[in-house]
C-alpha cells in the first residue's frame, strides 16, 4: 500500500511538474511574440553562497508584489529552519552532555566516527590550506567521558533535561514537515534538508495566484503538519528561547562545537515573534531562510532599461549539484532536477552547449558568480577536507576558463562580508585555515582585499579572453546596499550585452 501511494505521489509530482514547465513555456512564447528581448543571467557559486538570496533581492526590487504574494508560503520553511536548528542543538547536547539525557552507554564510545584529516589542498596553486581539525568530544570537559565526579556544569542537567523533553516533539516533526514541503514537486526532504525547484511556492500556499487548479488543490491539502508545528511552537516558545539562551548551548556555539546554519541564530532570537498565531514572514525572514536549491530554477522579471522592456531570466543553479555540463543545457531548456551524481565537470564540451547555443533560448548573457568570503574557516559538507574558499576558487576557475561561456559578461560578488567582519572581530584568524595568508593583519580591509586579489588573479590566469570582470563586495541580507548593487550590475550587464551585439 505504501508503494502504491508513493507511486501515486510521484505521478502527481510529474504531472504538476510538467504543467509548470508548460506554463513557463507558454509565458515565454507570449513574451517572444510581444517582441521582448530576453536577457539570461546565470547565478553560479558553491552551495550556500547566496544565489537564491540574490534572486530574492532581484524579486524584491523588480517584482515586490510577487514576493508579497509568496510571503505566506515561506512560513513553513521558516519553521523548518527552526526545527533543524533545534535538532542540531539537541544532537550536540546529547553528545557533549550525555548524563543530562541518558545513562552512559555501556561501551562509552561517542556516536560518530571522526573524519581523518588530509593535507591535500585540491586547488593547490593559489593558497595553502590548513586541513580541518577532526571533531573530537570535548577532552577538557569531564562530561564528555563518564566521570562520576560532580562538576559545576552538572547543575545544568535537570534544566537541560526538562527543556529537551519540551522541544523533542517539535524536533520529531521535522521529517513530517519536510515531507509536507516535499510533497508533489520538491524532490526529497528529511534530515538532510528540503530541496526546492521552481513552482514550489504553489504547493504550500493555497491562495497563491498560480493558475493551475491542480496545484491549488494539492497545496490546500498540504498544511496539516505546518499548522501542528505552528501550534507546538506557540506552546513551547519560552522553552525554545530558554534552551537557545542556555549557557550550555551558547558556549557550544561560541566554541564552534555546535555549528548551526548561519540563519539559525536570527530565527531563534526572533522565536517569540515567529510563534505568534498570525505570523507571516517579513522580508528579513524571507532573506534569512535557508532552503537548498536542487537543479536549476528559472525566475523571470520584466525590466525597463533605456526606454525598452527586457525580459530577464534568472537561472538559479543549485550549488550542491554543480550543473555545468550536459545537464545544464537540458536544465536551462527544461528546468529538470539534476541528480547529485552529476557533479561538477572540469570542462564543458562543445556538444553540451550546442543545444543551448542554437536553441531560441540561447547562451547566457551574463554570469553572476557568488563567493562567500566569510567561509575561510569552513569546509565542504560533502568533502570535509576541502576548504570552502578553495572550492569557490576552483569553481570560479572552471567557469572563467570555459571557452563556451566566454561571451557571457562576468560579475563576481564576494558575498557575506557582514559575516566576514564578525568572524574577524571575534578573532578567528585567517592564517589558521589558509597558511599562505601568513602574517598579514587579520583585518577586514586586508583580508577582503587578499581574497579579491586572488579571484582577479584566477580570472587573469584562466580566462582566455580576459574579459572585464565586475567585482562587488556584498552583504546580501542588507536590502538597501544590495539593491544599489543590483541596479549597478544590471546596467553593466546591459552595456556589455549591447556592445556584444554591436549596439554600443
Ligand atoms: N549573513 C549573511 N547571510 C547570507 C548572505 N547571503 C546569503 N546568506 C544566507 O546564507 C544562506 C544560504 O543562502 P542561499 O541563498 O540559500 O544560498 P544558495 O547559494 O542559493 O545555496 P544552494 O541553493 O545550496 O546552492 C541563507 O540562510 C541566506 O540567508 C550574506 O551576505 N550574509
Ligand atoms: Mg539556492
UniProtKB/TrEMBL annotation:
GO terms for cellular component: cytoplasm; heterotrimeric G-protein complex. One of its GO terms (molecular function) is GTPase activity. Residues 136-148 have a biased composition (Low complexity). Residues 101-117 have a biased composition (Pro residues). The keyword Cell inner membrane does not apply. GTP binds at residues 287-293, 415-418. It holds the Pfam family G-alpha. It comes from the Eukaryota. Coiled coil: none annotated. GO terms for biological process: adenylate cyclase-modulating G protein-coupled receptor signaling pathway. Mg(2+) binds at residue 293. This is Uncharacterized protein. The lineage of its organism: Eukaryota, Fungi, Dikarya, Basidiomycota, Agaricomycotina.
